[in-house]
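Practice set, problem 2.
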Amino acid sequence: MVSSNILEQLRKSLDPDRVLTSTISRYAFANDAGPYLLIPEAILQPKTEAEIQTVFRLATDSQTPVVFRAGGTNLSGQSITDGWLVDLGRHWRKVEVIDGGSKVRVQPGVIGGNVNAHLKAYGRKIGPDPSSIMSAMMGGILSNNASGMCCGVKLNAYHTLESIRFILADGSLWDTSWPSEHERFAREATHVARGLLDLRDAIRNNAALSQRIRKKYQQKNTLGYSLNAFLDFDSPLDILAHLLIGAEGTLAFISEAVLKTVEDFPKKATAIAYFSDVLSACESIPKLIESKCAAIELMDFASLTSIRQLEGIPQELPRLLDAHPGMMAILFEYQAKADVAIEACLARFYSECAEQLSAIHAIEFTRDVKIQQQLWKLRKGMYPAVAAVRARGEAAILEDIVFPIEQLGPAILDLQRLFTKHDYANGIIFGHAKDGNLHFVITQSMNGQKDIEKYASFIDDMVDLVVRKYDGALKAEHGTGRNMAPFVETEWGSEALAFMKQLKHLLDPKGILNPDVILSSQEAVHTKNLKDLPVVEDVVDKCIECGACEPRCPSRDFTLSPRQRIVVRRAVSRLKRDGALSEARELEREYDFAGLATCATDGLCAIDCPVHINTGELVKQLRREKTRSFDSWLAMRISRHFGWVEHLVKLALRCGSAINAVVSKNAMVFITSTVARIIPQFPQWHPSLSTETLPRNFCSVQDAEYIYIPACMSRMMGGTATSLLRVCQQVSVRIHLPNGLTGTCCGQAFSSKGYPVAASEKQAEWIAKVWELSDQGRLPIVMDLGSCSAFINQTPGLSTDSMAKLAKLKILDSIEFAHDVVLPKLSIVKKLPRIAIHSVCANQKADWEEKLIRIADACAEDILIPHAGKCCGMGGDRGFAIPELTNAATADVKAKMEIAACSRGYTSARSCAISLSTSTGKPWQSIFHLLEEVVH
């Protein structure tokens, strides 16, 4: 335990808000995607290199382990600690495209997929392409030397590294892009430079080891340190720069790197070939490699079975699985610059390759981007998909190994025999066949010594199979971590291990950087601190904590991410099981705000989750469970007198606007924020708040083609109705706005707060009213808030009569209406120069986003999507009570708009427009304002 004096020094250096020691922070950040668990003493969130240097100094003084965490998607135990966990994901997110896209400068906290998004306009991407690239961050991609499906052994971070900026454990800062750095390194870091040269010479003078190293790196290999650096480079600084790639944070802190990029081929043709057995599938791999496939992904029978229930699987797959037990499949893809080149690839495949493959089903290529994305999503989601079939409480463990390609078939059969021997009935095998790189997943409980012994026995047999029988590699792309640290000597031999130990001592003599990772003094460290997954709520029990859900979450930079919300629930369960009731109660108290109050329940986390876990549903369930009878009674009273609520809100908005007009434009912001300091979660005033009287109809119900039902938020806060009706009038779309809608609500607001009975009652009331207004479903209904459009079709709690009426109602969201009905009739006078658009959460879940983009494209010369794929944090009305949530969610939007010289934005929800107007200081309006502007 580090002294309070050391922690106080950290708080002074980093600011108290970035030294997290609360119970919930320590447990929330404890877990990564791997099978191990340690509870950190503190979570540090430094912003600058100077702060990192301070952390190193204080850690050295106190002999405290320091472990860096970027995305936490690693699978081998690299980013856990009981010391100081340095969270890089909250800051360190800069990306700079340089030299026309041929290179890119990155910091460790930027997501790999975001780097590729910056490079897309240049037709480039980074070389590493791990399956987790949409959630993995560059710190992990560099530190694990990640590769992936197309990367192979030549396009990984090691081979595409241009320069690197790093801090050693002694606090010294180095940058290999500086011209005089080599001389400075030799002069100021003489001991390290000399030590690296001695190691270089000793390795080069050992002919057998040098030959072994060269052979090992002809295949994928991330076990141990990158000893090939001693053969590939001469100068100490160049050697060290490349040793840091794959060093898993055990040698230094990487603050920045410049990578050479590779071409991102826009044209692709993708197919699946099915084979009756393992050997026939593996015999096809050399033929596919020879045909110049960009990616060749192998999937065994068990892995295919694990995804057979998922949406989007190939139509033929279930039938083939039933007919061919033991079958294998290969997903493969050709990539090229142009269509003509893809046609040439396919022609060559059919003339030279197809007949040589013993496929059991016709091989058909798709060039449909959506189908391709779905196929790759299924392949990338195989590891998490096992979570859907594992027994409750079991952990899922993934390893990645390499066999010689010519022996891949027999090796797979041997590995499957190990599954049977050790009773892993759900074991699956898949992987990058082009490189002989297999991933396998096993599931088991980790609740006692017997479970641990079972796992250890299997690992021993697996190591023996890979190393001694096939001379393969125990790690291909996921890093050594804790799980393979005991076996570095087994694969590399005692001489290589000795050199690795000398390297570690040379650069980290005090041993503070990520101890027990890559090299460990602990015997059988791979069987210690194994993580169990206690049973929690059904809605999230399938989660394996992979972190794929985190990038979209609006609260991840404020309180907790979806993964952390689940992690803390499991922590509470463990603590209660182990009798630590006081700590469990403290976690539950802190969870009320961090876990429940600050969740926007937008559900976007389910989009990227391979097993579609919606953590918002967990939060809604827990909110329901925490409601008292008085709360439920009050919710019912409010729902039944919702008309008065509308009147009161409108009155409050008018009064607030009057105060702003008389006192100052920010008077209400000051007043409400002051009150909120006394009364937590008191609704805050946003500068863009306003109200408007609903406009007069230009169309009677008798003449109407559509009925317009504004959401209660639109009625109270305006922003859409007037423009929508004006645009409809201009294009002669006959739409009627009924009177008497005050108090009408779809019920979504009550549902999200945990009051399902009140929600169902309001939903039924809405259906009954709209049923009559639409002439019993004859007229289509237009709704102007996407979340309401989506919610109204949810049916839990509805009577049979209400469900029957709902089924007959034709409901159009405002985006569908604008795109399908209004836009084709619109005579655009002049396009706007550049605009920003924001696709609300419901658009992304209901697949309306493309229509919004097409509307914007039709109305503007250039469009910016500064918050692509994310939630603004408003969560209906949650952002009014907790403005910090929207501030955190939209922190980067203002800068993106300013860089792009974009002065206005448009969206399809009034609440989102308010949030984005506040965070950017620029006007955000309804998409119908945009349509209205371009016809004038």
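Problem 2, part (b): a different protein.
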Amino acid sequence: MATKAEKPTTTPPATPTREITQEMQRSYLEYAMSVIVSRALPDVRDGLKPVHRRILWGMWEGGNAAGSKLRKSANTVGEVMGRYHPHGDSAIYDALVRMAQDFSLRYPLVQGQGNFGNIDGDAAAAMRYTEARLAVIANDILGDIEKDTVDFRPNYDNSRKEPVVLPTKIPNLLVNGSMGIAVGMATNIPPHNLGEVLDALMYLADHPDANTKDLMQFVKGPDFPTGGTIYNEKDILTAYATGKGPVIARGTAEIKEAKRGFQIIITEIPYQVVKSDFIRRIAELVKDKKVEGIKDVRDESAKDIRIVIELKMDAFPKKVLNALYKYTELQKTFHFNMLALSNGIQPEVMGLKTLLEHFLEHRRQVVIRRSKFELERAKERAHILEGLSQALQHIDAIIETIKKSATREEAHVNLVKKFKLSDRQATAILEMQLQRLAGLERKKIEDELEEKRKRIAYLEALLKSPRKLLEVVIQEFKEMREAYADERRTKVIKSTLREIGDEELVPEEDALFMLTHGGYIKRLPPDDLRAQKRGGKGLIGIATKEEDVVSHFFIANTHDSIMFFTNSGKVFQVKGYEVPEAARQAKGRAIANFIQVSGTDQITAVVRIPKDQRGQYLFMSTTRGVIKKVPVDAFSHVRKGGILAINLRSDDRLGWVTRTSGEDQVILTTAQGSAIRFSEKDVRSMGRTASGVAGIRLEDGDAVIGSDVIPSKAEKGYRLLALMANGYGKCTALDQYKVQKRGGRGILTAKITTKTGPLVSAHVVNEEHLDIIAVSQKGNVIRTAVKGIPVISRATQGVRVMRLQQGDALALVVVI
């Protein structure tokens, strides 16, 4: 019995074994490189991650460029996912949305229609509701891609080709920045101003040895789409030199006075801060009592950001604002980490110069490849035109040859053989229409041939000359700058955050400073107020709010320290240049923007301390006749929140503060027409917190309205200028005022009547004082010569100095 043949047994080949640690290392490395190269990091050349590049290419390829009809976002997402990026529609749509957000990208690459999200953190509408197309600037990111300017590679299923990098004329990596978290590394590149980056590229092209500091002549710092302010040139330089480093950014906030206290108005917030989260954080701080003085927070934003923070009446506005900087994202640190892919595969942390060099080389290669492509096409066309030109010169023989040929193929062979043409030239001749035989058409062929020969010569010369190639690159940068550059949005402060400004860059010049009772201050050039004759009606010197009046008008240098004394006896200090210059009729800025004065305090005296001037005294006088002398050095370190200058009784207020030498005399004047003159030496030097001593004894209902200094070297010609509420004034020689001991009742200095009104101001003047500037309660200002005011005796009414309107009264006088 035959037995069934047994099947031969085969042993499968043994699988090579590996240590699990080696396998995990290899697999993890492959995964990490895939994330780094294919997902998370941008290419240094076009500044794009693969998903963004595929979206732009997909829209360009599909005819969805700028100027085309808007197309549903779902259509774009579907095409990109099906052709190039099979990683899910949500990832593609999120990337598309971000490229359309003007608060995320400095120069959006996609133009969207519909709800594409907002700065409050609200998500975009579903892709089936929104529409999009490429923004105009994206045309210059993809332009010339059809001219073999970049390499292409197969897509994920090898059915199509996609660009490895885009031939962008825009330095997109720096201009729009980039964020991404890869495996073991991350990138964080801020947006920049396009005009500044292009200027730096053009400079670097001509000066390849330039260093980072040279380039920062053009690139001042990041330029965030949300504006704000960044600080410290040294930190920015470090970040640009090394590719890493922190830079402090702040939003834009201003303190303004409202009907019931002060407000903090926030009009810009730092980059990447979600507005709704920011407001919620403020509410939490108020609830937890970490920030005190806030009454209400409102979001009044429409197209532009406007967050209104209402403050309580007793709040210190500057102190509240500082707390917001400290505890909220109104102040934020942006950490530079300029990591990008070099040559498309190698992650590298790059400084500003390296980034610009990579882009410059990319553009050079694009121009080379484009020129080679155009040269090849020009030569091909010139070759055809040469054949057509030759045919037109021998047209009868050409026609005869074609007529004698039995077939098209035979005619083709005969033409090549008889006239020594190439196959392409012979084909073009056979396809030539009879209308090309017309004289004008023949001329067009000759002209086109000449143009192509010139183009070929130009392109050949261009490819042989590195300098000419660079000039083409620079010219294209100029074109991009003209087309897209705009003003910087983010302000750059060169000094550190602790410093208010760079004093060395502020010119030293005298200026007029005007302060209102309501707390508004401004600085303007002295020439803004023209001189007028005595008795004139004046001109409008400041736009005041309803019920607001001018309280101080003084002259100081921009480098002087200006001390503000309040009725409660506190003193604050700012530099002259910190007060912004304004137009003559402008209202100015709230003083609370510069000092932490409370809503209940009123500034009653202003003293300027020239730079490096010490060793003198500040002489203080109150409305109740109390006086005090304190060394200027005691106020060398005035805190932002102010310090105490004098201890006052509850019914008294600090009214006047002047500088003295220690050897001067002082004269006090009252509203009812009394005056007392005494030596400064009668008052001993005191500490800041002392209460002072009696200067003059007052009658019931009387009060001090003026306190001024008579210099120790005062000679003949000094006099007391007294101004009254109804616009009357006079000068009286000082020798009519005997020197007394402090604390007396004084002597008569003016005859007070209903016509003149009470005294409102008194000043010591001499022949060197050329003009006075008088300001009424309604803001009318007149400038007139001191010598135009007559010198008369003490017990007189004076003459009219300023003609006032009905219901107006003199507020103050400054002597120049």
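Answer key, part (b): Residues 352-393 form the longest helix (42 residues). The domain at 48-167 is CATH 3.90.199.10 (Topoisomerase II; domain 5).
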